[in-house]
Specification:
Shape: globular
Number of helices: 4
Distance between the termini: 40 Å
Largest sheet: 7 strands, mixed
Number of strands: 7
Radius of gyration: 16 Å
Strand content: 25-35%
Structural class: alpha+beta
Order of helices and strands: EHHEEEHEHEE
Strand order of the largest sheet: 1-2-3-4-5-7-6
């Protein structure tokens, strides 16, 4: 754990991260999607590696929204199976929250997580995230997602995390 180090993700890492990316709970994307994130939001894309430079975990995200809906979004965070429960995801989430607060001055950070992924949902709750809404059929129409949020200091009244009283469909997003 103490021998790991974090750094910004690079294009070459796309050839090295299959060991952590090919996991049934990790959404995978096409090459151009990752490259778009690297080009537009490089500070939101970090890699954690072991002393042997093997990728152990990564996070990717972006800044989006308008007005009081301006926020950081966690697109993906994943940890290699043999490196879980060591605090790596927590460290990466802290990095993303710091970028969202200090660089982009967001009101909150949000993420989507499978309703069935209890380990992740509980981890996010421990990190201060709350369930803002349930999104029906978010994962390819087959599984619902929780939209979880954590208010940042800019949202002094914590308006961004007041839960919606009813589920929504992906087509209803603003």
């Amino acid at each position: 754990h103490s021998m790991s180090s974090s750094r910004y993700f690079s294009c070459l890492d796309l050839f090295e991260f299959n060991s952590i990316n090919l996991d049934k709970l990790t959404e995978t994307y096409n090459l151009s999607f990752y490259l778009q994130y690297l080009a537009r939001w490089p500070l939101y894309f970090s890699l954690l590696q072991g002393p042997d430079h093997r990728p152990l975990a990564y996070i990717m995200g972006k800044a989006e929204g308008e007005g009081e809906n301006w926020h950081g979004h966690v697109t993906a965070v994943t940890v290699a199976a043999d490196s879980r429960r060591l605090g790596f995801a927590t460290n990466l989430m802290t990095l993303l929250e710091t970028v969202s607060e200090k660089i982009y001055d967001g009101y909150f950070v949000d993420l989507y997580v499978r309703v069935s992924n209890n380990v992740a949902v509980n981890m996010y709750k421990k990190l201060g995230y709350t369930i803002y809404r349930t999104v029906i059929g978010y994962y390819s129409g087959e599984e619902d997602a929780y939209d979880m949020r954590k208010a940042l200091p800019r949202d002094k009244e914590k308006k961004s995390i007041i839960p919606l009283p009813h589920p929504v469909y992906p087509s209803e997003f603003d």
